[in-house]
């Protein structure tokens, strides 16, 4: 079972769990700065790109007590990041690619950098290569086999504005702004070549590739779903209007999680990509820009209700408080989370529940019902803009 985190623009990590397809609940938070733009999860740690405030590392191994481990300011503005083999690779705006040693999550440190041609927006690391979406300069391919000395291997100026990239089977799929997506052969990384371009509805801002399907966060047009054929000419399947400004998308277990900016998080059943079905949302006041999935954690769903008091890190329930799982009733946790050496317990909120409107199963035109069984164990939202 997957665990999913979602980023909002203000105040840190807040875990939400689905109680039904149309009701999700926030159960915990850790205070953070605003302008969080990207997220990765690995081995119980969430790595957040915080725009002008660099990166944050948060312990999310206990979903009821996310815990800020460390922060590191970068010289630019951290738009995106990827994590691989103990290093975080940060797309740092006009400061290019920054390589951060995160082998000690309490003490991240920069070990190398590469100044890309324009503005680094997103990065996907595959093996010893970092593929950077570099805005007006398109795709930059950087050798990071020596993290201290990243070296440019190849580059290709795409037709549009490179905002995101995902590499699958020697092919880079670039979300290329108002020019749609660019499909690039990178089997020879020194000489990348455009194979084809596709034009999903709207402005391509984020991209995810799963099996033979391409999912594109298409701004105000919502989620575009396209077929990845062989040769990889993208063909349109469907477009789902998410009502907001779709900024990024993550797909896991047949579900697409769309970061819909000021319209929050949208959950869409894409198990049949030709017939996507909206399941639910975590809407206002959340402003959601990015999501990430950690597939390695399996635990029962949590439902908790606590008041929030930012003046104290101690969590104590009110008269309506309580926690339960989908498998058994749980006693309300009242003790403070254990301190990690070097970490900051003062960054924690108390836990509360924030259900969205609606509950229960909702019939759909396809005959499928949006039952809670379709949703993953946990969702997470980072903060709320009110």
Summarize the structure.
This protein has 386 residues and is mostly beta strands. The protein is built from no helices and 32 strands. It has one domain: YVTN repeat-like/Quinoprotein amine dehydrogenase (Methylamine Dehydrogenase, Chain H), CATH 2.130.10.
Tell me what the structure shows.
- The chain is an all-beta fold and 386 residues long.
- It has a single domain (3-7, 34-303, 377-382), classed as YVTN repeat-like/Quinoprotein amine dehydrogenase (Methylamine Dehydrogenase, Chain H, 7 Propeller), CATH 2.130.10.10.
- The protein is 0% helix and 44% strand.
- The strands form eight sheets. The protein has a five-stranded mixed sheet with strand order 3-2-32-1-28, with no helix packed on it. A four-stranded antiparallel sheet has the order 4-5-6-7, with no helix packed on it.
- A hairpin with a 5-residue loop joins strand 25 and strand 26 (265-269).
- It starts with a strand and ends with a strand.
